[in-house]
Amino acid sequence: QGEFYSEFGTFDVKITLPGNYKIMATGDLINGEAEYAWLDSLANEGDKLHNLDKKAFKKRIKELKKNNDKESEEMKTLHFHQEKVHDFAWFADPNWIVRKGELKFEESGRSVTLWSMYLPKNAELWENSIEYLNDATYWYSKFYLEYPYNHVTAVDGDMSAGGGMEYPNITVISSGGSKDMLEYVIMH
Fold first, then answer.
1. Cα-based angle 155, 145, 153 (whole degrees, multiple of 5)
2. What does the pLDDT look like over 142-188, one tens digit per residue?
3. Among 7, 25, 48, 54, which residue carries the largest CB count within 10 Å?
4. Phi and psi at residue 58, in whole multiples of 5°?
5. How wide is the angle at C-alpha 158 spanned by C-alphas 91 and 134, nearest 5°?
6. 144-156 pLDDT, tens per residue?
7. What is the DSSP letter of 21?
8. How does DSSP classify residue 40?
9. What is residue 71's DSSP assignment?
10. Longest CA pairwise span in the chain (Å)
């Protein structure tokens, strides 16, 4: 019983998928200017969603649950690159709600982008996920080493993997549980 062993290396990966899918992966998005602009606009929508009153929030969640089932005929190819990691993972879903944050390290002045992507049915549970990513990255960086990569991402995988699974830059988390448990799994 134990964890896997992998050597560290460089991953240079191109992924082609339908245009309406939101995708996050290990590494930096090389050809991502348009993709990041789209994700930023979706993050603004995600923030607005959580500022609605309870009735409007529930109505909007119902709309989101049934609106995104169609696959786009337009395809896109995104290019991810990351050095000095032991694995590569990617996740995509057309239905995710997108949230974005930023953590700036005091000593180095460097910033890390925080991404959270989750299904509409889990929106209440994931409401504070950017805060959880921020706190976990901040405290681990403060007590160990500064987080060396450009983004930290948590995605709602709606699967049963015993809570979640972590990969370089990204973790996939199964739905269910409580806000406290979500914070714990993100921190893990």
1. 10
2. 999 999 999 999 999 876 555 788 889 999 998 768 889 889 888 88
3. 25
4. -65, -40
5. 65
6. 999 999 999 999 9
7. -
8. H
9. P
10. 50
